[in-house]
Amino acid sequence: MPLDKRELLLQKKEKIALGGGEKRIEKQHAKGKMTARERLNHFFDPGTFIETDAFIKCRCTNFGMDKLDAEGESVVTGYGQIDGRIVYAYSQDFTITGEPLGKCTPERLSRQWTALPRSVPPWSA
Question: What positions does the domain CoA carboxyltransferase N-terminal occupy (predicted)?
Answer without folding.
Answer: 2-125
